[in-house]
User: Which sequence fits this backbone?
C-alpha cells in the first residue's frame, strides 16, 4: 500500500486520492475555495473562474485541475481574493441583481460569496440588460435577470433528468443566455417538472419554485447562520 | 483646553425612500454618543437646505432626475469623504428596475393609459419639476465615491459599526451578519 499523497494548500498539507481535482480534495479536507459554477454532483464546467488558484505560481481553475503530489497551491491570498471580488463585481453589473426584491436572497451562492469576499460595491457601470422573465410553467418561474451562466441547469437536466430542457445559446457578453428546448422557447411547453434535479440546482435566483418563495423567512436561510466559507465545506 | 473639533456630517436622500435615514435613527441611544463626535450640516435632521464644507457626506438613493445630479455634485464638492448608503445608491436599487423600459412608455402608462385616471390628466411638465433621467444610476456612476455601505436598508448595527470604524480612522469592515444587500 502506497503512502497517502498530499499537496500544499495555503501552507497546509491536503491529502488526495489519485484523479481528484484540487477543489474536491480541498472540500474533503474542509478547506473553502470560492466557487459558483462548480457543484459536487456534476462535471466541472470551469467557466466562472472564481475558484482560480495559483499552482506553483501559475493561475489555474481548481475545479478542473487535478491534484498532484507535492504541488504548492495558493488560495485565500489577498491577490487572489481581490481578483475574485472583481469577477463577482463583473457578474453583478452584467445582470440585474436586485437582492432586496429577490426571493432567493439568503439562499443565493452569488450573494453569499460576495459577502464572504467583502464586496461592498459593484464598482463598474451597470449594463441593466433587458431579460424578460418566463412564468409560463405552472410550478416554476424563470427570472433570467439573475443568471450567471453557470450552466448547472443544463447539466442537471441533461445528466440527472435526461430531459435536455436547458441549453446555452447566443454569443458574446450581452448575447449569451440560457435557452429553453421547446418550439415556443417557453418552459411551460416542455416536460420540465418541479421535482426535476434541475429545478433545485440553480445557485442564484433564476429557477424558482412557485408558491414557496418565503416559506423560510429572511434571516433564517442557508447563508444567514454561517457564511459561504463555512456552509460550502460542511459535510 | 479647547474641545476636540467635531466632524461635520451632511446626509441626504436622492432616489431613495428615506429607509436608510430611518435606519440611521435605529442606532438608537448610540445617537447621543455619535453627537459627541459629529455635528450635522445639511440633513433631514437639521433641515439645512444646502451643504457647506463637511468632513463626511452620506448619500442615500440613486440618481433618477436632474436635481439628484445637482445635489450629488454639491455633496461631492463639499465633502472630504463621500459614502453611498443603501442598495439604491450602491446599484440603483428598486428605482433602477425601470431601466430596461423606455421612459416615455412609463410616463404614458402612469399618467395616460392606466385605468382610474381623471379626465384630462397629462404627463406633468411644470418647469419646477426636475426632469427624470432616461435611466436610474447608482451614485458611483456620476461622482467618485469613497465608501459603500450596502443594505436595504443597512441595519442600525451595520451603520454604527461602519461609522465608528470610519470615525476612528479605520477602513470600515462589516463581516458576516452585518454585510447585507437586502
Assistant:
Amino acid at each position: 500500500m502506497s503512502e497517502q499523497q498530499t499537496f500544499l494548500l495555503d501552507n497546509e498539507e491536503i491529502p488526495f486520492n489519485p484523479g481528484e481535482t484540487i477543489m474536491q480534495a480541498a472540500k474533503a479536507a474542509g478547506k473553502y475555495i470560492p466557487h459558483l459554477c462548480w457543484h459536487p454532483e456534476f462535471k466541472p464546467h470551469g467557466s466562472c473562474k472564481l475558484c482560480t488558484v495559483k499552482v506553483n505560481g501559475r493561475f489555474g481553475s481548481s475545479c478542473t485541475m487535478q491534484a498532484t503530489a507535492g504541488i504548492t497551491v495558493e488560495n485565500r491570498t489577498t491577490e487572489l481574493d481581490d481578483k475574485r471580488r472583481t469577477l463577482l463585481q463583473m457578474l453583478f453589473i452584467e445582470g440585474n441583481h436586485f437582492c432586496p426584491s429577490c426571493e432567493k436572497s439568503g439562499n443565493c451562492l452569488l450573494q453569499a460569496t460576495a459577502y464572504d469576499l467583502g464586496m461592498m460595491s459593484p464598482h463598474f457601470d451597470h449594463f441593466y440588460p433587458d431579460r424578460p422573465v418566463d412564468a409560463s410553467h405552472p410550478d416554476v418561474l424563470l427570472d433570467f435577470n439573475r443568471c450567471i451562466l453557470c450552466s448547472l441547469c443544463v447539466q442537471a437536466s441533461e445528466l440527472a433528468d435526461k430531459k435536455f430542457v436547458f441549453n446555452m445559446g447566443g454569443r458574446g457578453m450581452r448575447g449569451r443566455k440560457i435557452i429553453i428546448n421547446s418550439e415556443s422557447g417557453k418552459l411551460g411547453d416542455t416536460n420540465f417538472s418541479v421535482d426535476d434535479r434541475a429545478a433545485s440546482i440553480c445557485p442564484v435566483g433564476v429557477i424558482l419554485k412557485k408558491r414557496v418563495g418565503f416559506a423560510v423567512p429572511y434571516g433564517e436561510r442557508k447563508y444567514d447562520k454561517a457564511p459561504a466559507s463555512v456552509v460550502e465545506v460542511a459535510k | 483646553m479647547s474641545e476636540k473639533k467635531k466632524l461635520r456630517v451632511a446626509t441626504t436622500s436622492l432616489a431613495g425612500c428615506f429607509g436608510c435615514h430611518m435606519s440611521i435613527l435605529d442606532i438608537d441611544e448610540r445617537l447621543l454618543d455619535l453627537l459627541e463626535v459629529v455635528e450635522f450640516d445639511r440633513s433631514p435632521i437639521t433641515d439645512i437646505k444646502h451643504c457647506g464644507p463637511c468632513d463626511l457626506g452620506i448619500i442615500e438613493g440613486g440618481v433618477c432626475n436632474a436635481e439628484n445630479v445637482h445635489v450629488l455634485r454639491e455633496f461631492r464638492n463639499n465633502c472630504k469623504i463621500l459614502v453611498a448608503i443603501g442598495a439604491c445608491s450602491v446599484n440603483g436599487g428598486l428605482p433602477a428596475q425601470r431601466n430596461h423600459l423606455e421612459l416615455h412608455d412609463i410616463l404614458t402608462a402612469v399618467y395616460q393609459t392606466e385605468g382610474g385616471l381623471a379626465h384630462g390628466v397629462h404627463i406633468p411638465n411644470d418647469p419646477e419639476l426636475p426632469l427624470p433621467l432616461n435611466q436610474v444610476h447608482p451614485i458611483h456612476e456620476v461622482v467618485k465615491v469613497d465608501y459603500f455601505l450596502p443594505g436595504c436598508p443597512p441595519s442600525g448595527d451595520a451603520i454604527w459599526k461602519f461609522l465608528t470604524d470610519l470615525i476612528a480612522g479605520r477602513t470600515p469592515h462589516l463581516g458576516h451578519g452585518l454585510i447585507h444587500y437586502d
Remarks:
- The beta strands of chain A are 5-9, 12-16, 52-55, 58-61, 72-74, 140-142, 166-169, 177-180, 207-209.
- Chain A has a mean pLDDT of 96.
- The interface with chain B takes residues 92, 96-102, 105-106, 111, 114-116, 118, 120-123, 125-126, 128-131, 218, 226-227 of chain A (CB under 8 Å).
- The longest strand of chain A covers residues 5-9.
